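Researcher: I'd like a candidate sequence for this fold, 70 residues long. If you have to choose between options at a position, lean toward the conservative one.
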């Protein structure tokens, strides 16, 4: 396992991540996001350039999905 030290809502917490957690995350089917998220629904994304938890490139991936909805 790995103890992941993160900040949520300005509070430090520790999340224990196990190999099973990683396997479950890797198997998550994100097809509905690509194929079923309606284009008529507005989406607001906000991301800090100095975010140490979620890299900026993740925002670029999310933007690509949102802009290319069916």
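Model: Candidate sequence:
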């Amino acid at each position: 396992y790995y103890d992941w030290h993160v900040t949520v809502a300005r509070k430090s917490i520790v999340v224990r991540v196990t190999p099973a957690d990683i396997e479950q995350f890797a198997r998550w089917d994100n097809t509905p996001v690509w194929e079923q998220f309606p284009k008529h629904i507005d989406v607001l994304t906000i991301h800090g350039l100095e975010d140490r938890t979620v890299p900026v490139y993740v925002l670029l991936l999310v933007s690509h999905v949102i802009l290319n909805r069916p």
